[in-house]
Amino acid sequence: MFARRFIEQIGIMKSAKYLLCIGILTPSLGMGQSAEENSSQWIHIQQTEDGVISLKKGSLRVEKSKGGAQEAMWITRWVSPKKGSSVHFAIMKIPMEACFNGYGKIIETDMAGKFTGSYDYVEQGGNVISAIGWAVCQAAKTP
To answer: SS3 for 3?
Structure first.
């Protein structure tokens, strides 16, 4: 159920050979959208005392990496109330091989593509990154 709702919310459409994403480029807050409209562009994932993690609707895509391997990519936003409501954006990537194996690394880059970190992914691993990775993998594997 969660995977189906997640797939619908991130805007995946079925195609014969490709996953198409809707809304990858949308106006940001300050460019014609109210805070309420802007928040509707994000899927709330987790709220902790350290901040709120959200995924950008329509940002999921499957592409070849520089090394030639297929990887699923999406945009993540982290809002930290402890740092004066600072907002951190990142591109997250998981190799499709990790999706099929059920384990691997999720890579984080800044919006320019510079490596900023990696996280262990284990299907049904019981943590937030594994839950996000699992849902993304399910969406990316949908024919």
So the answer is: helix
DSSP code string of 18-78? --EES-SS-PPBTTTB-HHHHHTTEEEEEEETTEEEEEETT--EEEE-TTS-EEEEEEEEE
Give the single-character DSSP code of 119: E
Domain boundaries, the chain: 2-141
Give the model's confidence band at 97: pLDDT under 50 very low, under 70 low, under 90 confident, else very high.
very high
Q: Helix axis angle, 128-141 relative to 2-10, nearest 10°?
A: 70
- Token readout for 130 is 């594994």
Farthest CA pair distance, the chain: 46
| pLDDT over 50 (residue 25) | no
Predicted TM-score of the model (pTM): 0.69
Query: Of 56, 55, 73, whose CA–CA distance to 64 is shortest?
Result: 73
